[in-house]
Structure formats: C-alpha cells, structure tokens
Amino acid sequence: MAAPLDPRDPLGIDDLLSEEDLAVRDTVRAWCADRVLPHIADWYEAGELPTVRELARELGGIGALGMHLEGYGCAGASAVQYGLACLELEAADSGLRSLVSVQGSLAMYAIHRWGSEEQKQTWLPRMAAGEVIGCFGLTEPDHGSDPASMRTNAKRDGADWVLNGRKMWITNGSVAGVAVVWAQTDEGVRGFVVPTDTPGFSAPEIKHKGSLRASVTSELVLDNVRLPEDAVFPDVRGLKGPLSCLNQARYGIVWGALGAARSCLETAREYSLTREQFGRPIGGFQLTQAKLADMSLELNKGLLLALHLGRRMDAGTLRPEQVSYGKLNNVREAIEIARTARTILGANGISFEYPIMRHANNLESVLTYEGTVEMHQLIVGKTLTGLDAFR
Length: 391
Fold this sequence. Notes:
Blueprint: H1 19-35, H2 40-46, H3 52-61, H4 79-92, H5 94-114, H6 117-128, E1 134-137, E2 153-157, E3 160-171, E4 178-185, E5 188-195, E6 201-202, E7 217-228, H7 240-274, E8 276-277, E9 280-281, H8 286-315, H9 320-345, H10 356-368, H11 373-385
Parallel strand pairs: 1-4
Antiparallel strand pairs: 2-3, 3-7, 4-5, 6-7, 8-9
C-alpha cells in the first residue's frame, strides 16, 4: 500500500526536485533553525537585527549570497535552488530573506550584469563571502512606482562624477560597505558603485517600523558625493539597468513569500491538533478543516507556479511579465494564508510566541515592495490586452 500523504507536502512536490535541490534547501533550513529561529521573535520585537554582519558572513559561508550568479566566488546555483533558499529564509523571517535578496539579486546582480571587470573583481568576491554588505538605491521619498521621475542626479565635473539626492526605504543601507545608486544624468539614468565611506554619503537608519522590524532599513543621503569616472556602470543607460535587477529580486519573492505562508499554515495545523474546545481538538471541526484545506491548496498552487517559473529561468526563457504573475499571486495568497492562520489560533495568533502575526506584518511590506499589487496587475493587464494603462 502507498504511504500516507505527507500533510506538509500533500502533492508530492518534493518528487519534482533533484537531490541537489533538496540538499540546498535542507542546508538553508538547518542554518535558519540553528541561527535565526531561536532569536527572531526577540529581534523583531526589539526592532533590530543585532548580528547582521555576523549573519552575513555565515550566509556567505553556506553559499547563500549571490548564489545564482556565476564566478567571482559565487555558488553558481540554479534559479530553482536560489528560490528554495529564499523560501527557507522567509520561513524564518522576511527581513532575513530581504537581506539576502538585496545583497544577491539587487546589489551583486547589478555589478555582475552591468559592472566593469574591475568593479566585479573589486566587490563581488567579498560580497559573496559576506565580508561586504551591499544595498541598492532606487526608490526615493517621492518616487516609488515611478523611478523614471527620480530626482537624484549625477553631473560630470572634470574627470569625476558628483552625486546629489536622497533614496528611501533602502534595505541594508546603514550597514552596507557599498551602495549601487541610480541617478539621472545628461545621458539618462545611470548606475554608480558607491563605497559608503565616500565623503558626503550617509545612511541614517529608519526606525518606528511596524513591519520588517528584524531588518536594517535606511535612507541614503548623497551630498556632493564625488566619484571617479570608473565608478559608473559603463554600458547601461536608462531604466533597463535597475529594472533588470528588480526582476531578479521579484523572482526571489515569488518563492520567499511562500516560506512565510508555509510557516503560518504549519503553525495553524499543529495548533489545531492540540487546542481543544467543546471537548475535542479544533482541527476536527469542519470550519477549521475548510480553512486548512484552502490554505494548503493555495500554498501548493503557489509552489507549483514558483517551480514552473524557476524552470523557465534556468532555461533562459522566463519573461518579466511572467515574474509579475508569480509575485502578484504568491504574495497576495501568502498574506491571506497568514490572516486565515491567525484566526485558527484566535487570540494566541497575535502573540510573538507564534510566528503568524510577525509574518503577516512582514508580508504587508512584501506586498508593496518590488512592485505594488496595482503595478503588477497593470503589467499582467498589458500582457493580456497589449494596451499600456500606466498613464
């Protein structure tokens, strides 16, 4: 007789993964269980990630930083393996996945894809090892979904560039050793590699957050930051540069959001088997089972979608519009799973003794960054109609 279905993998999705895929997943899962889960509730409640530099070095040690990139000390993992790592990181906390995502998919990817060979050699090996943390400056105080209207500018002054402006909601900003900053120039939008010890650069940390509390979030201030000519990415102009990086980060979120959802579902399922009301476990009541069934259904549909997109990325056929399908669906369903799971725990669901409210709060940010729900709806809408509704 066939073995009973595993309630944690009822569709047998693990059967679609290779031994190497599973090994990568299990390595990241074990690291999170050992180094993050015992402390994350306290870090979140305190609104800090106190050991961020130490954690970055450890993540570099297990090959998780820029893991989907080739060469320069990067692991050269597949897109599916990178996605599985993002899932496990966000099952611990969205802030942790954001640290890795901004490091690898934004800052490192930008240098790897658009940087000069000197820029790559200078920064990527140290970033892959976690010795240098990177950040990515695109969003501004008045320009989020409309990066073409950014006000940060770079002007030539002899052989140098001089940058002025502000960036907002920048993960890793105040702990970064290097910032990738996008700015308006007379030649269009261009990207600059900015060592954060350059005079005129500062990154005050943003406090009083109700979401992503176990994450370093900062403003970037550029006040006559003078850089040499070779600080600019040599061959990319316009929004093609930053948008190519955002597509990488969005792909990681397609997987990552499901990690938060899985944590919520598993917490609710286990709770329903031990919490008794009216003389029996609440998991035996029809309404609770309906909630668990719907959450499991959406989680596993999301996993199949993520895996499909990952296979396409590995084959070189994944389009940005397809990533929007994944980001829109999986984050929206993940936050609904978190909210439903909270109802199963009742009042206990708001306690940080359980991860659900922390995940729900984090997912409110994940719902917005790397493209809001509305922006991804319009991307999908344009795909379906051929008509641009952004303006």
